[in-house]
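Lab notebook, bench 4. We co-purified these components, and the gel suggests they stay together. Before we commit to crystallization screens, I want a quick structural picture of the whole thing.
Request: model the full complex, all chains together.
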Amino acid sequence: QQQVKQSPQSLIVQKGGISIINCAYENTAFDYFPWYQQFPGKGPALLIAIRPDVSEKKEGRFTISFNKSAKQFSLHIMDSQPGDSATYFCAASEDSNYQLIWGAGTKLIIKP
Amino acid sequence: SAVISQKPSRDICQRGTSLTIQCQVDSQVTMMFWYRQQPGQSLTLIATANQGSEATYESGFVIDKFPISRPNLTFSTLTVSNMSPEDSSIYLCSFWTGGLDTEAFFGQGTRLTVV
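Here is the predicted assembly.
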C-alpha cells in the first residue's frame, strides 16, 4: 500500500513533443505529490509538486495532472527540449510524517 | 527556498576505512534525512536525523554502520563506516521546509566509490 508505481521506465520523445510520465499510488493518506528531475551525478531537484486540493498545476512547460479518484498523477513536459533529458522521479508522502515514497524513475531522452 | 550544501561531492575510499559526509542548510529546518541511491535506482531512505537525539534508522540500516549526528537545526553528518565495495553509491541529504506548503529538497549528493 506504500508503493508508488511509475511508468514508463524509459521514454524517447522528439524535440518539441510532449513527454508524459505517469504514477499511481494506493495509500489514500498521501497528500503531497512531487516530481523530481535528476541529471547524472547530481542530486534530485524539485521540479513541481501538487497537493490533492487541485487537479492540475502548471509551471512553465511542466504540468502535473492529478486524479484523486483514480489515485494517479502525471507529469507533462510540453515542447520537450534536449536539455530536459534526465531521469524523473515521482514521489508521494503524508505531510504528517515527511517520508517520501519514491517511484522507480523514468529515463527521458529528448531527440534533437 | 533554503540552500543545502553537501560535501564532499565525490570520494574514492579504501575498503575498511570510514567517510563522513556533511550537510549544511542555510536556515533552520526541522526534518533532515539521509538517503542512498544505487546507480540507476531510486532513492532509499537510510535514516531520519533528529536534532538532539539519536537518528531513526530504516530497516536494513544500523547505527554502527551509518552513524549520524545532528548537533543543531542546520547541520548533519552521515558516516559510512568500515566500507566495502557494496557501499559504493550516491549518498544524499534532504530536508523539508517548514510551514503549510512544506516541500522536500536535496543536496547535490556524494558519489562514493570504495575500492
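The interface with chain B takes residues 32, 34, 36, 41-46, 49, 51, 89, 91, 93, 95, 98-100, 102-105 of chain A (CB under 8 Å). Worth comparing against the SEC data before the next meeting. Chain A has no helices and eleven strands.
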